[in-house]
Design a protein that fits this description.
By secondary structure, this protein is mainly alpha-helical. Helices cover 65% and strands 5% of the residues. It has one domain. The chain has nine helices and four strands, in the order E-E-H-H-H-H-H-H-H-H-E-E-H. Helix 1 crosses helix 2 and helix 4 packs antiparallel against helix 5. The mean pLDDT is 86.
Length: 270
């Protein structure tokens, strides 16, 4: 595990930034392939990848700063954009990234639900690679295992600063692996008939479910909200519920539209 790959003069090239940039580039490539396969909108994917990728990074950082670490950053405003210190919340990244994507689609008259379905596997693929960046940076770490097994982080990482030489659960590794499992499930789902918008709803449901249970192993931001669950778990419950409602509503609407189309067709004459 190396936080710093090499130096250019006094400037460190961090593994975190390199892998995070790679995750955006490769996720955009996956999105381009899926759009090309779908037969539409592939000429917009690169622009979407740039806008949504950058806004996603900003949203992830600001969500962490204002919802988790404001007590610290309110007195250290110049460090708000120091992402290498740790502190990126995927919830904020997805929300702002999707919001910017919707605005882009509206401006270019792109079917929003269709593009969201195309983008869903690419987003979770990027998230999986992003967890590799977290591992290399020593953030998004797990809680102490209480035994002799687990990850012991280098002394330069936030994980070591928090727990010292205690072995920690590999929470970010397992989340990254589950992200790739969700990626495969979404590809399989897209191969079968479904209503427009359901692939993105399924992505939200699967990720929220995985994140909810993995939060029990996390060692950062583990304080419960109202004595119940962590803030990330509360967000996961909300996201899963809303996505499930959308999934069911889209299915019902699709069934009604199909029934209406079949009854509105004129009978053929012999």
């Amino acid at each position: 595990m190396h936080q710093y790959l090499f130096y250019i003069g006094d400037f460190p090239v961090r593994a975190y930034g390199l892998v995070l940039s790679l995750s955006i580039i490769l996720a955009t490539g996956v999105g381009y392939f899926l759009a090309k396969q779908d037969g539409r909108y592939h000429n917009h994917v690169v622009d979407l990848g740039i806008y949504c990728g950058l806004s996603g990074l900003l949203g992830a950082r600001l969500w962490d700063v204002f919802f988790f670490d404001w007590d610290y950053y309110s007195h250290h405003l110049t460090e708000i954009l120091n992402v290498w210190q740790g502190g990126m919340a995927i919830q904020g990244g997805v929300i702002l990234g999707v919001a910017v994507g919707i605005l882009y689609c509206r401006r270019h008259s792109i079917d929003i639900l269709a593009m969201m379905d195309i983008s869903a596997p690419a987003i979770i693929f990027g998230q999986g690679l992003g967890r590799c960046a977290n591992l290399l940076n020593g953030d998004a770490f797990g809680a102490p295992t209480g035994g002799s097994f687990g990850i012991i982080y280098p002394s330069t990482t936030l994980a070591h600063h928090t727990y010292g030489n205690q072995p920690l659960w590999p929470a970010e590794i397992w989340e990254g692996q589950l992200d790739f499992v969700i990626f495969a499930i979404l590809l399989l789902f897209r191969a079968y008939p479904h209503v427009k918008g359901q692939a993105f709803s399924l992505y939200v449901m699967l990720y929220c479910a995985a994140r909810f249970f993995l939060e029990f192993l996390r060692g950062d931001y583990a304080d419960p909200v109202l004595g119940l669950f962590t803030s990330a778990q509360m967000t996961s419950i909300t996201g899963f519920t809303l996505a499930l409602i959308c999934f069911i509503a889209l299915q019902i609407k699709g069934h009604k539209d199909k029934k209406t189309d079949s009854t509105s067709k004129p009978e053929s004459k012999v």
